[in-house]
Amino acid sequence: MPYLIDGHNLIGQLPDIDLADPDDEVKLVLKLRSFAGRVGKKVTVVFDNGLPAGEEKTLSTHSVRVRFASPRSSADQVLRNMIARLKNPRGWVLVCSDVAVTALAAQKGVRVITSHQFAQDLTSLLAAPRSAVNDEPSQKANPRLSQAEVDEWLSLFQAGGDD
Is residue 9 part of a domain? Predict the structure, then answer.
């Protein structure tokens, strides 16, 4: 399920990013890139009043799309417009705390997570070792080759190099 996220709502709930920080959006985008990489989901994050309005190409990646509302609009309005146009709303998750936006999303069948809850989940997920998230052993096997095996491989590669 792809995620639609109200960026400033989420920043306001994170313990390590401050809305007064001039780099708050960039810091959130970096967190969301880690999130998207760990869970294998696409994310669209929308912020209020950025220049230029629309998609921000330098911050956007394949997995995280960054949009800024125009000065005449708001992130809430952009999110409402996006929700109204979703082809498969039941396949999306909205992270937002605005009552009007979450009500529209719920009406359309979009799964809603409050910014507060998602901030807690995101903080826990990013604090966990990556292997714990993927259910992989924390240390990969480190195979050791015997000297005989190394010599055998060397002879194969050296023999092939003379052709």
Answer: yes
